[in-house]
Design goal:
Blueprint lengths: L1 E2 L4 E7 L3 E9 L3 E5 L9 H10 L4 E5 L5 H4 L9 E5 L2 H9 L19 E3 L2 E5 L4 E6 L8 E5 L4 E5 L15 H12 L9 E4 L1 E3 L6 E2 L13
Length: 222
């Protein structure tokens, strides 16, 4: 676990060809787990941290979108709230029935589906900070980000990728540009202290960056 600030930690998992990042945010009354990586076993360091430090806080798990490398560890948190965009549950269920051979098999524990959903935005107000979950379509139709208002930290999932954004949606480019414009309107986004991406190739730049320039889409090579 890597500490990014007083109350934010990230957990990286080596998925052979790429690194997958989850994050943990400790607030006064809640602890947020942002994405659950590739399996329940991959989330053991996070579970250990929660066992030691959660106290009487409520655990809230957030799925940034339905893709397997962000949700296959959900079963590690069965019994806790799992929050996602309202289309995520349907897309996860469809993914579970997929005949796509390139999709890794679900873990033996299964994949727990989200229990709470929202549309455009869901906010949790806490004495320490305010957490905003915001719908950011482009990479997928159900993509969301987590933004810490006072901490000026953006947990971007796959909404922000480097060097070239991956758009799984057909005709997703226009939505993605609109999403980036939306993110620029967030309070203090222009001076965001940390942006954490959820995915990176092993040879790419780190999954966290101190500059909001990482939010800008890079041109595709010609």
């Amino acid at each position: 676990m890597e500490r990014l600030g007083d109350n934010v930690y990230i957990h990286r998992v080596d998925a052979t060809e790429f690194l997958v990042t989850s994050a943990v945010v400790f607030l006064t009354t809640r602890v947020f787990v942002f994405d659950t990586s590739i399996s329940p076993q991959a989330m053991e360091p996070v579970k250990t941290m929660l066992d030691e430090q959660v106290g009487d806080r409520r655990v809230v798990v957030v799925n940034s979108h339905h893709h397997w490398d962000h949700t296959y560890g959900n079963a590690a948190f069965a019994g806790h709230d799992i929050v996602a965009h309202r289309s995520c549950r349907k897309l996860m269920a469809s993914q579970g029935r997929s005949a796509n051979e390139s999709l890794p098999l679900a873990p033996p524990e299964g994949v727990t589906l989200p229990t709470i959903s929202f549309g455009d935005r869901l906010s949790y107000i806490d004495d320490l900070d305010t957490v905003h979950l915001i719908h950011t379509p482009g990479h997928t139709e159900d993509s969301i980000i987590l933004y810490l208002d006072k901490g000026r930290t953006l947990l971007a999932g796959d909404t922000v990728e480097w060097p070239i954004p991956s758009l799984a949606m057909r005709d997703g480019a226009a939505l993605y540009v609109r999403t980036l414009r939306q993110l620029k309107q967030l309070p203090s986004t222009r001076s965001s202290r940390v942006t954490v991406r959820g995915w990176a190739r092993r040879s790419s730049t780190p999954t966290s960056a101190t500059s909001p320039e990482s939010m800008r889409p890079s041109p595709r090579p010609s």
